[in-house]
Write a sequence for this structure.
């Protein structure tokens, strides 16, 4: 290799390392919960009775345990979204779009962190949160009552406007004895388990609908990890 070529390679390598060192870092993990207006853990008979009739509404929330999204630290902060779709979310035989969303960002977050929380939620859900019609700062509480989130009671509130409360699915929740996970989670997760929704709902503005949907096998509790 000529001196000129060696010099060129050396300059390129230094530039690449400098760019990599200065590139925004995304590496974060935490907890996730969602609840819909249709069962996600169910048997075919129940699913067929609900599909295209309900299940187009959902509340979901993330709590960042530790980490940063594109260089913005989000330790301990939360974000919640409520969505209204055209049809049952997760139905492979239907078309849920268009979907409109309202988002609540942690009121403790700075302006930069609020933008990062919104972008993070959109990154975790693909096109689902592409059309956000309203973003509001809100006191958000995300409680996991046991260390093992998959067996835990999870409570999520965004002020008085959106909420989820879950518990683990028990033997008494099996109604037809051939239940399975019928729809996947709406967000990317590291590991997810279906859960029983004790109560969930949305009472805010922006979606032209408000709802309460208690006592259904309609939730997922999960952990997430994103690194890119």
């Amino acid at each position: 290799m000529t001196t000129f070529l060696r010099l060129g390679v050396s300059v390129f390598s230094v530039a690449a390392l400098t760019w990599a060192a200065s590139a925004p870092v995304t590496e974060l993990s935490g907890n996730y919960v969602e609840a819909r207006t249709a069962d996600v853990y169910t048997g075919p008979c129940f699913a067929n009775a609900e599909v295209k009739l309900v299940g187009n509404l959902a509340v979901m929330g993330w709590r960042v345990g530790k980490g940063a999204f594109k260089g913005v630290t989000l330790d301990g902060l939360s974000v919640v979204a409520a969505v209204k779709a055209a049809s049952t979310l997760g139905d492979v035989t239907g078309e849920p779009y268009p979907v409109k969303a309202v988002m609540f960002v942690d009121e403790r977050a700075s302006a930069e962190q609020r933008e990062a929380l919104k972008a993070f939620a959109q990154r975790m859900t693909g096109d689902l949160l592409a059309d956000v019609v309203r973003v509001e700062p809100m006191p958000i509480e995300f409680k996991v009552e046991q260390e093992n989130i998959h067996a835990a009671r999870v409570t999520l509130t965004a002020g008085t406007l959106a909420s989820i409360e879950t518990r683990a699915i028990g033997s008494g929740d099996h109604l037809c004895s051939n239940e399975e996970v019928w729809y996947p989670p709406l967000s990317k997760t590291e590991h997810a388990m279906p859960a029983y929704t004790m109560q969930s709902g949305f009472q805010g503005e922006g979606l032209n609908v408000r709802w309460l949907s208690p006592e259904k096998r309609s939730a997922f509790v999960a952990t997430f990890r994103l690194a890119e």
In short: The chain has a mean pLDDT of 89. The longest helix spans residues 3-22.
